[in-house]
Amino acid sequence: MPIVKAVTCPVCGCLCDDIELTVENRKIAKVKNGCAMCESKFLSYSGHRLLKPLVRRNGEFVRVSLGEAIKKAAKILSESNYPLLYGWSSTSCEATRVGIELAEEVNGLIDNTSTICHGPSTLSTQDIGMASSTLGQIRHRADLIIYWGSNPWSAHPRHIERYTAFTEGRFEKSEWRGYLTKIKALNVKKKIRSALRRLQRKEKISMPSLHASPYPALLKKGRKLVVVDVRKTKTAEIADHFIQVEPNKDYELLQALRALVKDQEIETDNVAGIPTEYLEEIADVMVNCDFGVLFFGLGLTMSRGKLRNIDAALNLTRDLNMRTKFVIMPMRGHFNVTGADTVFTWQTGFPYAVDFSLGYPRYNPGETSAVDVLLRKESDSALIIASDPVSNFPKKAVEHLVKNPLIVIDPHMNATAQMADVIFPSAFVGVEASGTAYRMDHVPLPLKKIVDPPRGILSDEEILRRILSEVRKIRKRKQAEAS
Amino acid sequence: MQNLKLQVTLLTGRTIEQGVGKERGKTSKEYMESVSVCYIDPEDLKRLGIKEKANVQISTEYGSVVVKAIKSQRGPHPSIIFIPYGPWANALVDPETNGAGMPSLKGIPAEIAPAPDKPVLGLEKLLKEEFGKE
Fold this sequence. Notes:
The structure holds 2 protein chains of 2 kinds. Chain A is an alpha/beta fold. Chain A has helices at about 35-45, 65-80, 95-105, 120-130, 135-140, 150-155, 160-165, 175-205, 235-240, 250-260, 275-290, 300, 305-320, 335-350, 370-375, 390, 395-405, 415-420, 460-480, and strands at about 5, 20-25, 25-30, 55, 60-65, 85, 110, 145-150, 225-230, 240-245, 270, 275, 290-295, 325-330, 355, 360-365, 380-385, 405-410, 420-425, 435-440, 445. A 9-stranded mixed beta sheet of chain A has the order 5-4-19-18-17-6-7-15-16. Chain A has a 5-stranded parallel beta sheet with strand order 10-9-8-13-14. In chain A, strands 1-2-3 form a 3-stranded antiparallel beta sheet, with helices on one face. Chain A is globular. The relative contact order of chain A is 0.19. By secondary structure, chain B is of the alpha/beta class. Chain B has one domain (about 5-130): Barwin-like endoglucanases (Beta Barrel), CATH 2.40.40. Chain B has helices at about 15-25, 30-35, 40-50, 85-90, 125-130, and strands at about 5-15, 35-40, 55-60, 65-70, 80-85, 105-115. In chain B, strands 2-4-3-6-1-5 form a 6-stranded mixed beta sheet. The termini of chain B are far apart. Chains A and B meet through helix 1, helix 4, helix 6, helix 9 and helix 12 of A and strand 1, helix 1 and helix 5 of B.
């Protein structure tokens, strides 16, 4: 049985590149080193597949040849005034490059999933700048790790193990053993609590408080893990410190920490539901670390304040760099959303929400971003690739998206494909097609082709090339007719 | 008892089950079961007079949907409910982008009520009901 080593996992922004796959009868039979999502992808990529191009006729999907589907898609795109080309974060950089060429050819709007993910982070970074580093630096050097509005245990399951608190760095040690001790202590605490509860029912005694003071853990040696979130997530449970901020109050909390880091005094007893005294301790820990890192997630970009929350986080990092070394990084979700941003920037000068309607690239999120264009009902067709906006956009935006002709390129059937007019089944990049993807710290990694795709199934890049070539043919024909 | 309603704050986000489900396939049973749910604080469940796995109707200014109630872990999270990203959550979120391109998908005021007689719609039925297309 051939074993393929050093495979890059095409699921989340961690892009773990230490996966080992066992291939049996041209199928992946075993996954080593992967998380639950990685295993799920590599072991179930062949289920729920689309195997033939489909076109909607009289409300029903009809199987058609690839050539026919390409012609239909090219016709839709060339007849539209303002097509939307959306997705790109779960495909290769090579496919995105062709997509941008296509958007320019059809004078459309091209946007990637950053628009509903870390778009505000990009806007804010363009305003303020970002002190960042690679994950390798963090792995070896970081002694304070903060996750703010992000739950890596669920969304980036190996992030802590590979890059932060539970990894054995050259200068900083893994905190894994400490975590095991903590879990054991927590279990003992639960047992005592339930025993006390039973006793209380019998004898009506008052429950003694089992909450230890929150501060001792802040004084511990070695790597410290702090989580700031509105809910106590699994990541929060393993943290040395969990700060439960009230929903939509991250901005206040960040600004309060900025004040404390600058040795200013806070005149209220608590900020965003957290005692000021506690915040002072946290600020001290931040200032006293040797190398701190703040990873932030959609808890900041999606709640009230949006890009202003990120402004405050970037400024906090900047302030901290006056006292110590501190870096900040967004927790990118899709495996190649960073790559999509990067390719967009090379080709057009802008990372997402790029409008070609005037023949040259324009960028003004809020005006040229996918959700806003759909809410204003401006687009008149759409090509969706490697994404599922019907599942991820607000209802009002989806209403306009599905009213117009819709082309979908995706390996799987999904909610968006169910509403489509033309569907192209494609090969899974990183499983059935090779390519390049960018990790969340902007390190490019190769995606391997492990197995062959089902017969007749092409890669996203090849499908886009064929659509582009057909669009160009239609254009030439029209120009010839006009002249 | 069935007229009980609670005012809560709706959060949407990722769960590991949703992550595993989406990789298995968006039309898979695992995906539907991972995203057509709502995590509610055990005390709030008591206040609503329902038990875990009962159907609840969540309504916001932007829409309404029926999902299954699940006890939230590692609480207390009073008055905070959580629905994983997916078509069910999308029926409820705020489309306003505040000129930044990003809709407001977290921290939305919502109302929750028991819905013993209403079913949790499957993906196709939900899409048909929401957008009139399947």
